[in-house]
Design brief:
The complex is a heterodimer. Chain A is of the alpha+beta class. In chain A, about 25% of the residues lie in helices and about 30% in strands. Chain A has a single domain, classed as hypothetical protein PF0899 fold. In chain A, strand 3 and strand 4 form a beta hairpin. The model of chain A has no long low-confidence stretch (mean pLDDT about 95). In chain B, strand 7, helix 7 and strand 8 form a beta-alpha-beta unit. The mean pLDDT of chain B is about 95. By secondary structure, chain B is α/β, with parallel strands linked by helices. Classes of the chains: A alpha+beta, B alpha/beta.
């Protein structure tokens, strides 16, 4: 389970971000998490609480937005949602999608801070 | 209590990504071609690497970093082929990260290494998120594991560049369905290059050597032009 490592890495990054902006009182962290990121949402939520304990982010909520897997179909020349994460083909024409458009994100999108 | 939103838009593993990018630049400057190896435990990474190192060491300068939770066993095996081997023991951590790689390189002269192989901890989940600065990532799948592994672990197959099907000498005994395995790899990583090898008999290894030598030559041409 590497979700704990990811949570710790996020805390380091947010702490730095907060310091750079003169110290933020963070209420919630908004994360964009792709379904093809290899990171489990529930495991990350669990790890987040553990990792925050005793840090300056203790009690901070983690809000996760799930990002779907989207591939680019070269035949249709359009972004498409494949049938599943283990079949990266265009749902309309069946062409294999060699480029992933979204779905890999593990991105801290924004911080909700006390105004 | 009112709140406001502060936009960040930064990757959660930014620190690792930055360090990996710096490592990649350093490898390119020093002329070291770096290959990462990922697979499940017991799929034959070390046997494959032993064979690769032994053969490549005839004409090239090779080195390897090998990750495990505990023991020096794999490093000892690989040292039969080259003295340039370091074991990274991660303790409880299930993957290597760029910092571990950087730290392990401290006493090495990269300009005296043509190929560096980084054997990750046996794990088909966690290593996919951690860029190590490698130029190519090989994902290994053994004939004894079953042909549906790529479908079960699509992320790691998709984040790799080349698939190596190992233990092909056992394929018949294990009733391994090779066409299905190739189909499944194609399904999760369309267009992926696939090699079928046996480290034991040496079959199929030539294709891998040819790929590596071609990649090294091409990387150095780019370096000269650049």
């Amino acid at each position: 389970m590497h979700e704990l490592s990811i949570a710790i890495s996020m805390i380091d990054q947010i702490t730095e971000e907060s310091a750079n902006r003169g110290g933020l009182d963070v209420e919630a962290v908004h994360l964009r998490l792709g379904v093809f990121s290899g990171v489990d949402k529930d495991a990350l939520l669990f790890s987040w609480e553990l990792a925050c304990e005793g840090s300056c982010l203790e009690g901070t909520r983690l809000v996760i937005e799930t990002i779907p897997l989207v591939i680019y179909c070269a035949a249709c020349q359009k972004d498409r949602v494949p049938p599943s994460v283990y079949q990266l083909t265009c749902p309309d024409c069946g062409t294999p999608g060699q480029r992933i458009v979204t779905g890999r994100e593990i991105e801290v999108a924004s911080l909700e801070v006390v105004a | 209590m009112s709140t406001r939103m502060v936009e960040v838009r930064a990757k959660a593993l930014k620190q690792n990504d930055l360090l990996a990018r710096a490592l990649r630049e350093r490898f390119r400057e020093e002329g070291t071609f770096v290959v990462g190896l990922v697979s499940s435990p017991g799929s034959g990474k070390t046997a494959f690497l032993e064979k690769l190192l032994a053969c490549l060491a005839r004409d090239c300068r090779v080195a390897a970093l090998v990750g495990d939770l505990a023991t020096e066993n794999d490093a000892e095996r690989l040292r039969r082929a080259t003295p340039n081997v370091k074991q990274i023991t991660t303790g409880t951590v299930c993957h290597l990260d760029a910092q571990m790689v950087e730290k392990s390189l401290e006493s090495w002269r990269l300009d005296r290494i043509d190929f560096l192989f980084i054997e990750n901890v046996g794990n088909l989940v966690c290593p996919s998120n951690y860029d190590l600065g490698e130029e190519l990532r090989f994902v290994l799948l053994s004939a004894t594991e079953g042909e549906d592994k790529p479908l079960k672990y699509p992320t790691i197959f998709n984040s790799s560049d080349v698939a190596i099907i190992t233990k092909m000498d056992l394929a018949e005994a294990a009733e391994f369905d090779l066409p299905a395995a190739r189909r499944n790899i194609e399904s999760v990583r369309p267009g992926m290059q696939i090699f079928e090898v046996s480290a034991k008999t040496g079959s199929g290894m030539q294709g891998v050597f040819d790929l590596l030598n071609a990649q090294l030559a091409s990387a150095r041409r780019v370096a000269v032009i650049g």
